[in-house]
Amino acid sequence: MSKDDLDELQKQMQKMFGKGAMPFPGFHAQQPASEESQVPDEVEEEIDVFEKIRNFELKPKEIRDELDRFVIKQSEAKKVLSVAVCDHYNHVRRCLSEDDTLEDEYAKQNILVLGPTGVGKTYLLKCIAKIIGVPFVKADATKFSETGYVGRDVEDIVRDLVKVADGNVELAEYGIVYIDEVDKLASSGEGSGKDVSGRGVQINLLKLMEDADINLKSQTDMMGQMEFMMDMVNGPGGKKRKQSVSTRHILFIVSGAFGHLAEQIEKRLSGSHIGFVSNVEKEDVGNCLSRVETSDLVKYGFEPEFVGRLPVRVACEPLESADLKEILVSSKGSILKQYREDFAGYNIDFSISDDALSLVAAKASTENTGARGLMTVLEKVFRHFKFELPSMDVKDFFVDAETVEDPLKALGVLLEKNKELHKKAMERDVEAFSLRFEAECAFVLKFEQAALDLLVDLSLGSDRSIRAICEDKFKDYPYGLKLLAEKGGKKEIFITRAVIEDPDKELSRWVVSAFGAGAGLPEPPKA
After folding, report:
1. What is the tens place of the pLDDT at every residue in 287-321?
2. Is 275 exposed, middle or buried, given 0-12, 13-18 or 19+ CB atoms closer than 10 A?
3. Is 509 helix (H, G, I), strand (E, B) or coil?
4. Predicted structure pTM score
5. Which helix (H) or strand (E) holds 495?
6. Same domain, residue pair 257 and 350
7. Cα gap 210→109, rounded to integer Å
8. How far apart, in whole angstroms, are the C-alpha atoms of residue 62 and residue 227?
9. Structural domain boundaries, residue 470
10. Are residues 272 and 299 in the same domain?
């Protein structure tokens, strides 16, 4: 069993028997806790979520406006998703407040999102789930198999939704399931190749996306079998737990890049079915995908019944250089914020010019990975700064277009400009080593300036940290100084340049001298 499975099992045991109980034969279950302690914080949070769903009153434009804060472009996708989500949760609200509505037929608006990688598909859906406040779980379609023995069973994703809802089955029944890379399930077609389990997984997903009752205990899951045993121990008089999850009000959203589907659609639109079609230009991909029809998806390799369960379809647009720059500048989830936080961990800040932002966006656009390309470019720009600057006294630096083009050269200029600050920082590293040495060995190491200068030179010349050099040179000193202390040696040890040049030789000389003519330790420098 994995750690997550063990943690989940512990939660279930505590809910059934109370904390500290031993729910197995031969042990008595713990008595119920007091009435006050039976309303934990997580229950109050669940009640708040239910109230939020019962009082759902968001309008599509309000959701769209909130998404605009996080995701750049994709106006059509935001509009379609906002309408579909509002329709779904308005129906859920009516079902919770009007019992008669539960019996009404309702065509669930499951959603298919198409678009190249890195355009914000996953981010859009995570933001929507956060806005509404319902449990959200994401899965990769390539991890599922038809049998569930090689790969995961598709029903596991519904069980995962229950875990995200902290075991609250009723709350999970109003959550959102997002399945990415669904295009890899296509059983045939140009873009997907052959996948012997794809058709079977599609068929298994059909029942989930409509209205199914999924058993909480998987037959292939050891934890599920142990939970069943606990139910048996609890006995007929114990508290009955819900054994299945209804998918009737779970919103399913699937997405994929659908490579080459745009070419297939262009063939249909142009009426040309003979010969080869040149690759669709990047700027035309979004337009072609937005005109997808059921026949295109069936030809691509999907079962008609599977496609029919996804009535809402929307295509995300590819991101251009200007869009990537806008993500850096305006998006609340800009990757620049993460880099600022990384440097802030060392009390370092940076500023970046507009020209540099444009160049980063242009380079990221050539990566053809959407917004993910921004991190690829910025990592190359910042990696050496992250390595060098935490060991220096430089607290801020400036990134211009030249820095983006040649980060190492820009760093070299910065290091040369702040050489004295670097030296002072390394001297403080020596002081920090001395304090650690004193705490561990009860000896105070006092370094004369000549010794400090040599350590700095050694560090710069070998590209090693002061800490590593000092630990290497003084690795035998704790034992040697202990011998000197037994002979009445001093607790303050003055480290000269000679000690740095050959620490073992000097330590040996001190020990021999201490056990011979006298203490032998170096005297403090005269004023």
Report:
1. 788 889 999 999 999 999 999 999 999 999 889 99
2. exposed
3. helix
4. 0.71
5. strand 492-495
6. no
7. 10
8. 43
9. 420-514
10. yes
